[in-house]
Here is the input.
Amino acid sequence: MPFSHVKAALITVLLALTVLTSGVQAQQTAQARVDVNLRAGPNREFPVVSALYAGTVFTVLGCLGDYSWCDVQSPPHRGWVAANNLMVLQPDGNQAALNVAGAVIGIGITTFILNNYWREHYYNRPWYGQSSYWNGRPVPYYGRPGYRPPPPHYRPPPPHYRPPPPPPRPAYRPPPHNSGGYRPPPPPRPAYRPPPNNGGSGYNPGQGGRPPMNQGGGGRPPGPPQAR
Here is the structure.
């Protein structure tokens, strides 16, 4: 066999060993420190694939860039687990949380593409047909300390209530004009008094009047009788 062919075969074997070795290093094992939910994506709002007990051993296939969530497998299940719920063995023999020691032990970085991931692992699940809904939801970042994601179906509180403004005051309108003008009330009428009773002659000596004049003699008394 020519030397060039031997050299090419050796290079092929070395490349295969390198790929195999890197794959073994990337797939570390981790143990659940508490009961965990295996989810269909790196988010606590994704559907639950399976609920697993504390002590379950997983094969870690990769983690997000901030080591907050990891793609794991525990046959026959495959899904995502929050990395702070997984414990790994460090080179010094001590255990640490995966979100802290993931970069130290050399766990590889992976990404999550929902359509491809669900098509490969969840095509027979009842929520597989809702991939368009879940694909449009942003994946929150869980690596910040002290951050707590909102619960499922979270609704923000309504804005501060403001009472409606009072209705506008009607424009002033003067009282209607009286076309007849003001008319004072009429003066009171005097009480009715009947005329005095004079007995038919019109003379009343009690009232200090004068006696009526003699209407027959022209007002003079008759003289003495004349002799005949």
Q: What stands out?
A: DSSP finds four helices and eight strands in the chain. The first helix runs from residue 3 to 26.
